[in-house]
Structures are given as C-alpha cells and as structure tokens.
Amino acid sequence: MESTMGLRRTRTYDTGVSVLLVVHFRALRCSMSDSVVSYCQNRLKLLELGVKAAQYCVVAFPKLDSETQIQELREQFPTWYYRVRPYVPVVLPFTPATLDEIQNVSEHVGRIRRNLHSLAISFSRCVERGEALFFQIEQGREEILQLHIAMTGAEPQQSLLTDVPMYEPQIWLGRVTDARQRAYAMAEANRIGRSLGLIDAVTLLRVEPDEEHKLVATFPFGIGRVDYYDRFTA
User: Fold this and answer.
1) What is the pTM of this model?
2) Which of 67, 174, 164, 197 is CA-nearest to residue 126?
C-alpha cells in the first residue's frame, strides 16, 4: 500500500480492470489489522470472480437555471431520468474496505463542509467521454478544483498511479451505450446554451453493483443540518 498527500491508495481489480481505491481521506489514519487484511482479500476474490462491490463518491448537485430543459432531455432516456439528477463529481468513486472507513469519510466531509461557502458555476458545452456525457464547467472551475482538494487533500495533477484519470471539474449528465443515441443526446444538450448554477452542499452517494445510485447523506456548506437518507453498507 502506498500513501501520498493524505490519501491511502492501493490497486485492486474490478472485472479485470485496474482501478484506484481511495481508502482514507486527509487526516485519517488506519493500520491494516488482520481483520481488515482478511476482508480485503475476500473482496479481491469477489472482484476477480466478477462480483462488484458497492462504491461511494462525493458529489455536488448544482441548482440550475436550465433544470427544466435538462430534465426534458433526460426524460427521453429512462436510465437517466430515474436515477439521480446531474451532478458534479467532487471525489471520484472509491471502495471502502470496512464500514468504519465510510463512517470516517462521512465525518471528514462533515468537518470540511463547515468552512465552505456557496459557489456559482456556468457551462455551455456538452462533451462525450467514453459512453458518458458531461457539461464542461467554465465559471467556477477553479472553485471546484479547490473543493476537490479540500475533500481529498490531494492536488489533482499529482498521482502515484499512472492509470488514474486526471480530475476534471464537470457535470455528469448521463451514460448512453448506443453511439447514435449518444450523438443525438449530446447535440440536444448543446442546444440548451449557457446555463448558470449554484452549489451550496455536497452529497455522499453510493453506487450499487447494478449501477443504481443512492443518496446516503447531504452536507450543506456551513453549519446546517446534515440529512441522512440511507445507512452505510460496504
């Protein structure tokens, strides 16, 4: 296991693909006890057999002036519409080794958000990355980068693993596997034009093995009450 910039990182396999597991956030320290090692070994066996584990990520749901137009577009794609609304990934998906770890992450996010303030964003261009569509953030890009750094304690340009994707402030719109439908969706998204948004909270999101997205907790910036929607599972 390697450690840098306050993050503990390790390699594992997700249906044969090497991925980054973010095990702890800044200022969190945990020794690898025998029980944790055993748990990780069992998790690796499941992954090698193609059994995916639930992942967590920290996201921000911006309040958008173009929400009506975006929802009308999403209604044409049921796999989008019946999942969570468009969001800004703040911390990329990670797999906790234990329930204690995800509890520690929740407490960490709860501490960091107390010193945060609302930020404005804008975007006008939709792009495709693989099978997914994203809006590129223009105004507010640097603020989102700083939010990412505050949550992870890591500079986005630094990584010990060469295959880890570079963090890029953007708004996830949805995933379309069919290339023709994806091209249509991207064209329609680009017709929406310049949109403005406000971010005043972050949300801990769980991604189930079947890719269902579930809200776990929302942390308003400042000292507002944290809303919990679901229990922690690993």
Assistant:
1) 0.74
2) 174
Domain-embedded: residue 133: yes
In this predicted model, what pLDDT tens digit does every residue of 197-230 receive, in sequence order?
Answer: 999 999 999 988 887 888 999 999 998 889 888 7
- The rounded distance, in Å, linking the Cα atoms of 27 and 114 is 16
CB within 8 Å of 228: residues ≥ 6 apart: 216, 217
| Cα three-residue angle 207-208-209, rounded to 5 degrees | 120
Q: Please write the tens of the pLDDT for every residue from 141-163.
A: 999 999 999 988 766 544 444 44
Q: Based on the structure, what is the number of domains in the chain? A: 1
Calpha distance 15→53 (Å, rounded): 11
Residue 205 structural domain:
52-228
Structure tokens at 57: 């990520």
Residue 37 falls within a domain, yes or no? Answer: no
Does residue 33 lie within any of the structural domains?
A: no
CATH number, domain with residue 97: 3.90.1140.10
